[in-house]
# Entry
Amino acid sequence: MDFTTPEFNSVHGVKVLLCFLLNRLNRDITEEQLYEIVLDSEVINYFYYTEALDVLLKNRSVKRTERGGKTYIVLEEKGRVGADYFNDTIPYYFRKQLLKTAVYYFARLDRESRADMEIIPTSNGCEVSFAVRDVNFDIMRLALYAPDEEQAKLIRDKIMLDPDGFYRKVIGFALENEEEKLEINAD
# Structure
């Protein structure tokens, strides 16, 4: 039995899905980001994606715009109307999966933009160097020891799941830290 994720296998449907996604995101999205989201969603294969995007560009439902050395895909009014009109012809599962993938993708980019992580090999393991940024400054800098690169990557990956939460936990621990109380029996 095959339990792989189903793919949408119609160029027309993929065109609607792409316009739906761009319409729902309502934000700037580079061509590379769109490609990564589509492939990560596992509901659209590369060949349907490239053909659908080509058709959308040719019929002026979307356009490419260059800004700051990056190519953005921008939804035009024709694409917006098409997404609204044909949206219900696409099964909910595909719309939900594509949109969920995009939301997670941009959340990850946001987390990565607020934190710097570096794994530095040392003579006896690795150092995981970590910084959490606020708007204009670092609110925390920390280096942790790991005995090998595999464990360093695990530490990095776990921190990157929620850098702000990690920061809050470290601050919470620091504020609750107390001097160790020793019990001495003078018998």
